[in-house]
Write a structure and sequence with these properties.
The structure is a homodimer of 189-residue chains. Chain A has 189 residues and is of the alpha+beta class. Chain A contains 9 helices and 8 strands. Chain A has a 4-stranded antiparallel β-sheet. The first copy, chain A, has a 4-stranded antiparallel β-sheet with strand order 2-7-4-5. The first copy, chain A, starts with a helix and ends with a helix. The first copy, chain A, binds a DNA duplex (30 and 30 nucleotides) through helix 9.
Chain lengths: 189, 189
Amino acid sequence: MDNLLNYIRSLTTFSDESWELLQSALTNKEFKKADFLLQEGEICNSLFYINKGFGKSQYEIDGTIKNTGFFFENEIATNINSFGSGLPSEYNIVACEPMETIVFDKNQLFHLAKQSREIETLGRNCIRLFASKQEELSKIHQLYNTQERYEYIEKTYPQFLQRVSLSQLASFLGVTRETLSRIRKKRIS
Amino acid sequence: MDNLLNYIRSLTTFSDESWELLQSALTNKEFKKADFLLQEGEICNSLFYINKGFGKSQYEIDGTIKNTGFFFENEIATNINSFGSGLPSEYNIVACEPMETIVFDKNQLFHLAKQSREIETLGRNCIRLFASKQEELSKIHQLYNTQERYEYIEKTYPQFLQRVSLSQLASFLGVTRETLSRIRKKRIS
DNA sequence: TTGATTTTGTGACAAATGTCTCAGCTTATT
DNA sequence: AATAAGCTGAGACATTTGTCACAAAATCAA
């Protein structure tokens, strides 16, 4: 749990009392590789703080899977749209490795937010982090070509290259695996 | 101001008292075409509710301008990253037409949020809307090719095609204006 | 209106990417 | 170890997109 408390305190001031209070909204949950944290069609009622392992969000369109995001240790995975609006999720969140997570229950969290301003502020900051991340993602697509996108990821999120397979990364970058393979080849020589 | 109140109440429950309280954070501001609502390097301390006209966000890289978003009537324009983090903006927000806006002052807003839970909730919902919009933007780049992106915009945001020029739209879609021109030609025949 | 500026459409060609295919290499499972 | 399954690298070819050039159309300012 210490990781989570550090994470929270990197976002906002958070008293020991708030931390105590927050416990009632938290449960530990483990996932095996390829397990679903969230399935398409479900309503997202959780935030998943990741203690170990990593996962990805993926759309399934006409049988083919497209990865739209990866979530690593010390980050929160969720479908912010579904979580906020109560509408069904359009995509899956899947464990790429065995994962250990701490689950925030939405109803409990909203209940606590009414009692504790620090918890409400925490929620707002989590959402803002998500908004920033999404903005960054759309930015790299609008501003950069494929090679520049790859270099941006290489520089900004080196763990992507270490932990994510070529095929998965290609899907994330919005190109075929062959194209990504060519880019790598070009950069070696 | 009625437009704004309706907008707010479409997001969250908002009492007349909260509305009264909110007034102290609001000012009217007009922009001429090509005026900056926010300039690169500035810290964003405002939310701009748009009563009339529309604007765009644009990065300037090596002298060329790339549009990353458009903001129309009854929406809020801001740099959510800079607004939330206090870091300088990496891009401009520019008026594409003469604009009439209602400006939320950040400091006043934060001050009021401490007094009124409804105002704090409003802020959280605004951020969530932004996160959703950004998620949608990155989604259409990762899932769709150029023609599909164009068709998605055509279907989902028809006012884009009516009000935004081809060159601006091409930049937004992440292709050259020639490519967008070809797609339009293909679709007519 | 006139003239200047910007925007758009188009063609030719080059470059990038997608599609299809196959072979070699890991990894997982038994 | 043996097998199966998935992942990667590579080539050939088709398609898409970018780049450059120029003309037509639309917009703007005097």
